[in-house]
């Protein structure tokens, strides 16, 4: 086969260490945009990145060459550095260990996007 076709839609969910409400407005939106850029920089499709003050949801169109664990590692490491370099907080920012990764079919995309 000359090319590869895939439809792999994954929603990542990961939390601030201790589930503390640290992702404050208005800079929280800057973090979401930055995370979207990390995803795009890895040649993945950032469908939507959003969340609350204590956690993030990233809905991603994943290419088969990118392991989920590598994608999450890159997102969390790079966004941690961004938050700390921007000095959005007085102390050191950290994500909680672990994550959730949930797969969806193409027909479920709109529902996940709206959620």
TrEMBL record:
SUPFAM superfamilies per record = Transposase IS200-like
As recorded in UniProt, coiled-coil segments are none
Transposase IS200-like domain location: 5-114
The GO molecular function terms of this record are:
DNA binding; transposase activity
Which Gene Ontology BP terms does the record give? DNA transposition
Give the source's domain of life in one word.
Bacteria
**InterPro entries from the UniProt entry:** Transposase_17, Transposase_17_sf
What's the protein called, per UniProt?
Transposase IS200-family protein
């Amino acid at each position: 086969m000359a090319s590869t076709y895939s439809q792999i839609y994954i929603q990542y969910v990961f939390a601030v260490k201790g589930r503390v409400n640290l992702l404050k407005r208005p800079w929280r939106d800057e973090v979401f945009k930055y995370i979207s850029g990390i995803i795009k920089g890895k040649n993945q499709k950032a469908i939507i990145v959003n969340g609350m003050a204590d956690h993030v949801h990233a809905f991603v169109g994943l290419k088969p060459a990118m392991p989920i664990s590598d994608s999450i590692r890159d997102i969390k490491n790079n966004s941690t550095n961004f938050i700390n370099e921007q000095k959005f907080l007085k102390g050191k920012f950290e994500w909680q260990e672990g994550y959730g990764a949930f797969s969806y079919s193409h027909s479920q995309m709109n529902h996940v996007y709206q959620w």
